[in-house]
Amino acid sequence: MTVNFPCEDSLRRNLDMNKFVREIPKVELHLHLEGAIPIDTVFALIRKKGTEPSIRTLEDLRARLRYRDFHHFIETWIWKNSFITESSDFEEIAYQVLHSLKEQNVKYIEAFYSPGDYEHLGMTVHEITENLIRGKERAAADFGIGCELIMDVIRGDGVDKAMQRVEQVTPFLGKGVIGIGLGGSEQKYPPEPYAPVYAEAQKRGFRLTAHAGEAAGSVSIWGAIKELGIERIGHGVRAFEDPELLAYLRDTQIPLEMCAVSNLRTGVVSSIEHHPICIYFDEGLMVTVNSDDPTMFNTDISQEYLVLARDLNFTPTELKRLSLNGVEASFMPEEKKGKLKDEFEIEWKDLFEKYKIEIVS
Fold first, then answer.
1. Is residue 239 a contact partner of residue 249, using CB atoms and an 8 Å limit?
2. How confident is the model at residue 12 (pLDDT cuts 50, 70, 90)?
3. Which terminal CB of the chain, N or C, has fewer other CB atoms within 10 Å?
């Protein structure tokens, strides 16, 4: 089946596509709250601290958020985090991030946060989590947007610290926190040593995901699957390096939290045309669309869909499938998934009618 927009001049069609992707009903499963802070909020935090004279304008900040490679991105991530100096900052961060997502018709988010990054400033897992929950509850009341939190275990901090943080966040499980993730330098710190952390987290009821196959190869994905028992894979870009792994991912339908623009900005892929998301989608893998660190990569979830349509030739029907994949791959209870899928189906039907998208058999 082929789905096309009606014939129009190029400019009008581009304008329609920009509007269309913003109106797509969406779910985000791979979003770092600290990397999604609206840029004017980041700028305000920098100016408030007053220790970075090189950042005088928003354009200075945008220029600072350009990266040579993945290592440079991590360095910039640490620099940006240095301007978050109080645990109370996190309530406003959560609120503003969710506000920006609601404006793009995002219905539900499972958002990463990394409390360990702020431990040296005296902020605790408890304080940060409490403030994030307050912020997301305010956003739910004001915008009707759903959000659950995934605490990111930082690879470089070691297994003992990871276990401590799981212990510290456990009181919030089911009260705003839903799972744990594994972030940080994938090349330096493979997943296998964190197997006891994940086993304990699973025993306590946390849902499990981990960054794998982004900066490191397919062996990292296998490690996350076999040793950590993950339910989703963050990125998984380099799964194509192992045909056996691709077959396994297709057969098990372990979801991939894919972030195409992020991978381009950090140099994980050389060009958007070389991104393997098309291969994975065509091979029947469970692919989802996400924005990772949208402020830091000058993107957002709508732009991710636009890139897939404009540069990789995904049709509107294929975009619909991707958006529904996001619901299916979420950690929501099955009953809530069913209700959200029904809501998505209604909105997609309205979108096809509104934009006069014709289905050609």
1. yes
2. very low
3. C
